[in-house]
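Data card: per-record layout.
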Amino acid sequence: MLTKQNGGQQNRRKDKIMMWVDYTIDQVGPNFKVKGDWEGEVMGLKEDGSPKNHYLYKPGDRFIVNESGWLCKVEAEAAKETDR
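The structure for this 84-residue chain is written out next.
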């Protein structure tokens, strides 16, 4: 099933709509990690460790979960506001 990012809302940044499949989620306590076929795959690394041009998330990214269960990325400036 293909879905739109942001819970079906129109994406104002015109990002690509991607469908990520065949991944595992590891959970330890309240924390979780999406794992691909190799370490770093979902964070933009090729199997040889070189960078890819797309990623699911990267270090430093922050997300807020909406009522529909979508993880919505919070832009860097907004994330700084929540730290204050």
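Known properties of this structure: Residues 49 and 67 are 36 Å apart (CA to CA). The two ends are 39 Å apart (CA to CA).

See the next section for split statistics.
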